[in-house]
Amino acid sequence: MLRKLITSVLFFVIAAGALAQNPFDEMCLTTEELELAKAINAYRVENKMPEIALSRSLCYVADVHAKDLYFFYNERSRASMHSWSGNGRWNECTYSNPKTDGRCMHNKPSELTDYQGLGFELAYRDNTDQATKNAFDAWINNEITRKVILNESSYLTFDWNAMGVKAFNGYVLVWFGTITDNADPVYPCGQTPESDSLSAPDLKPQKLFYVVVASYYSQSDAEKDKIRWEKRFFEPLKVLKNNDKYRLAVGAYNDNAAAEKALKEIRKQVRDAWIISL
Question: Which domain holds residue 271?
Answer without folding.
Answer: 209-277
